[in-house]
Write a structure and sequence with these properties.
single chain, mainly alpha, 2 domains, two-stranded parallel ribbon, flat
Length: about 250
């Protein structure tokens, strides 16, 4: 049965509230492990930043809350992906088991994106930025812990989001907004857009650091093309089968 626009909006509101509840509940759990999480987040800066600063009396509370919310978002991401795919299920035409499968894939890509940034990009970005900062001050570099945590979290989330490109191609093809032919014909423009996006995301200006983002993004784009081709073929097959049944 088709739903009206108001029904879709009501469902969206309900699922959004659930996602917020999931994040808040996970954040409460993560709050008790904030010290351990902060230690992990600070590891890429080891040997590059000697000491972090806290400039305001209540800033430590802000740091703990920020860390808890960020961790809660990660911990709750499987349930969030489940809600997202459940919401788009009518448009995508996926069965319940498919929702579980694609939610698991989305979470796996999410984790891989964050891990990629953590292990390959963060330390190099921090090293470059600290080196650049040394030319601007005669004293030792002083960085607040709050700004460092915000910078690290933003970079990790960007990496996790970039790794969703194949799934985005799958969904948009399934809905009918794009086709494999479109992705292939616009490949040069897409590569250029990815380079620009990587230049904006990457906090450094050296070619090596830029390539660390660009190369995976291009690979993920090509994986998205493969996903799109697979989905498009299935859609074509279903269309031909429906046409034969009508005849």
């Amino acid at each position: 049965m088709k739903m009206t626009v108001s029904q879709h909006l009501e469902e969206f509101r309900t699922r959004l509230i659930r996602c917020i509840i999931f994040v808040l509940m996970s954040a409460i759990l993560a709050f008790y492990f904030s010290d351990e999480i902060l230690y992990i987040l600070k590891l890429p800066s080891k040997g590059l930043i000697e000491n972090f600063l806290i400039l305001k009396p209540a800033e430590s509370i802000t740091i703990y809350l920020k860390t808890a919310l960020f961790s809660g978002l990660i911990f709750a991401s499987p349930l969030i992906f489940w809600e997202i795919f459940s919401f788009i299920k009518p448009a995508v035409g996926a069965k319940d088991i498919s929702i579980l499968k694609w939610a698991a894939i989305a979470f796996l890509l999410f984790v891989c994106g964050g891990a990629f940034v953590y292990w390959t990009v963060l330390s190099k970005a921090i090293a470059f930025l600290t080196f650049l900062s040394k030319g601007l001050t005669d004293s030792a570099i002083q960085i607040t812990l709050s700004s460092y945590i915000s910078f690290t979290m933003a970079l990790l989330l960007c990496g996790a989001g970039i790794f969703q490109i194949p799934l985005a191609a799958f969904i948009l093809t399934k809905i009918g907004l794009i086709t494999p032919k479109m992705l292939i014909s616009k490949r040069k423009e897409a590569y250029f857009a990815l380079i620009i996006a990587a230049a904006v995301i990457t906090p450094t200006t050296d070619v090596f650091s830029l390539a660390l983002f660009v190369v995976p993004m291009i690979i993920l784009y090509e994986v998205g093309v493969i996903f799109s081709k697979t989905v498009h073929k299935k859609n074509m097959f279903k269309g031909e089968k429906a046409y034969e049944e009508q005849c």
